[in-house]
Amino acid sequence: MKGKRELDDYRIEQISYVKNANMIRKIEKGFSFDNKYIIDDTYLLRTFLNENEKKRRQEFDYINIASNYSSFVPKGIEYNTLPEIEMSYMVLSYLPGTDGEEAIKDLTGTEQYNAGFLAGKELKNIHQVPAPRNYPSWYITKKKKSEKYLMELQQVNIEESIKELLATYIREHEDIMKDRPNTLQHDDFHPSNLLIHHRTFAGIIDFQRMDWGDPVHDLHKLGFFSKPISIEFTKGIIDGYHDNHVTDEFWRLYGLYSAMHVVSALVWGQRLSKEQYNKMKKYSFAVIKDHDNFNNSVPTWYR
Length: 303
Prior knowledge:
By secondary structure, the protein is an alpha+beta fold. The chain folds into two domains: 10-93, 2-Layer Sandwich (Phosphorylase Kinase, domain 1), CATH 3.30.200; 98-290, Aminoglycoside phosphotransferase (APH), C-terminal lobe (Aminoglycoside 3'-phosphotransferase, Chain: A, domain 2, Alpha-Beta Complex). Helix content is 43%, strand content 16%. The chain has helices spanning 16-19, 53-67, 100-103, 109-126, 138-153, 160-173, 222-226, 231-241, 248-272, 274-290, and strands spanning 24-27, 35-39, 43-49, 76-82, 87-93, 98-99, 183-185, 194-197, 200-204, 211-213. The strands form three sheets. Strands 1-2-3-5-4 form a five-stranded antiparallel β-sheet, with helices on one face. Strands 6-8-9 form a three-stranded antiparallel β-sheet. Strand 8 (194-197) and strand 9 form a beta hairpin. Helix 4 packs parallel to helix 8, helix 6 (160-173) packs across helix 9 and helix 9 runs antiparallel to helix 10 (274-290). It starts with 15 loop residues before the first helix and ends in a 13-residue tail after the last helix. 37% of the residues are buried. The model has no long low-confidence stretch (mean pLDDT 94).
């Protein structure tokens, strides 16, 4: 007798992990278009259309590689395609826990900092995975993206002084990206993709946006999505990442990437909806204020 099985699509019953499962729970939370299921509290099944087959298989392969550098990353167990239903899937080991955005508020200040410290240490471990050989220069690829967003920023409905502030700061500092290393980037590192279990950090999940580039860039969303949830947790991430030896070079890069993220967030917010734009504008202005109009690369919440 099978237990509770929350399946949206019974065509995936042919997957052996589904066919033999006693308990299947669907995960409703998250921004991914994947269907996600917990199987017998042991495996995580992600199903998706096979239109991005090459990228998703690469994601699976590099999750597996990253798991060799950190036990807080799920292990890749199986990847396969079901051509008859135009679907692919990956099976990963299941990491128990609650996403940080929800769980951190229930921790003490010390627990928040300690959880962040561990998360930062594990991110540093993941950054030991090098980019493929002959991968394009980080400086060239990031500068090209930045110029595109700065052009689009001109169409965003904010004060001209803000546009000028951001463009000037970025162009005056972008040369520090030259000769930066290219490593694996999670590229969506913030509390919603970090797990808390038994009142401590328990895992890094959702590598769907993984990319290659400067490892410091993986921290660029902290001011947007982590600091508003917990300053202690966010400070812990930075301290853990640097093993308590945070350098001036890091802060210069962090300030630059924060400014770049403000630009892209405003552009994307306006593309999506008025509601998203207002949300991104609120976060963006908070980051600008934290950096004293980018007169200081170290944000006020860390000083």
